[in-house]
Amino acid sequence: MNTQFKCVGLISKPGAADITDTVQALCELLKQAGIFVYADLETAQHVSLPSEQVIPIGSLAENCDLVMSIGGDGTLLSSARALVNTDVPLIGINRGTLGFLVDISPEKMHIKIKQILEGAFNEEERIILIIQIIRDGQVIQEQPAFNEVALHRLKSPGLIDIETYVDGNFVNSQRSDGLIIATPTGSTAYALSGGGPLMHPSLDAIVMVPINPHTLSNRPLVVDGNSEIGVKFSQRDKHRAQITCDNVILPDVLEGDFINIKRHPNKIRLLHPIDHDFFNTLRAKLGWSRAPQA
């Protein structure tokens, strides 16, 4: 097959025994197309590959010109974070549940993957966030997030006090269960559960969604993607708070810490089948009305 993709890396959902058939079928499909296949250590448990083709997930990007994620949205999020400092595109094979991001089903995998390998695909560039926890003037933690950064109370029935800033300008102080800062990609995830807006993935914007705010007028706020968002946390009542970036838990936040969130300088390249339609995905996943009849 004449394709621009010569080496493909596979990343699969950890501990998922039920995806073995999909991984093996995908690997065989790629081999038949004359493509050299690498797999991370987790994926290698599902398929037989020479040892030199089994490498750590962090090394896939430097050896591959395309990465395929087999699992759910969570697996794709982990894959995206591994690719954040590269220009390697990403494809999602859906073996999870909801699947807003992983849009190729195992049943249609052979057709859709062949089309993509032949150059028939749509490409999206999606923004990703980078968070810094600053303590005593020093950055003590830095972490990318494809979906969202969430600051939330930890093991306490009480509300926490948060101050928010945009580009150094004070926005508000709130008592709530926490705050979600999400990308357009993340607007269909945790932020949606918190009452945030649905955002088209092509937008260069960031949404701030309060979690159960005590003040009913405290609503989600959408800001420009170039904005830098600052958050301060008060432990006035000695309640503890924690930050999560997608599914990664960061160290506890202390009183006086400053949390800085901004757009990462790189973007994630997602490849979709040629017939991919974001609005069709919303209708299917959210149970909206059918498309108009022809």
List keywords for this structure.
294 residues; Rossmann fold; 38% strand; Tumour Suppressor Smad4; alpha+beta; 16 strands; 2 domains
Counting H and I runs of at least 4 residues, what is the number of helices? 6
Strand order of the largest sheet: 6-5-16-13-8-9
What is the name of the CATH topology of the largest domain?
Rossmann fold
The helix-and-strand class reads: alpha+beta
Which of globular, elongated, flat, extended, rod-shaped describes the shape?
globular
List the helices and strands in order: EHEHEHEHEEEEEEHEEEEEEH
Low-confidence stretches: none
Assigned CATH superfamily of the largest domain: Probable inorganic polyphosphate/atp-NAD kinase, domain 1
Number of strands: 16
Give the strand content.
35-45%
Mean pLDDT across every amino acid position = 92
**DSSP helix fraction:** 10-25%
Short description:
The protein has 294 residues and is of the alpha+beta class. The chain is 17% helix and 38% strand.
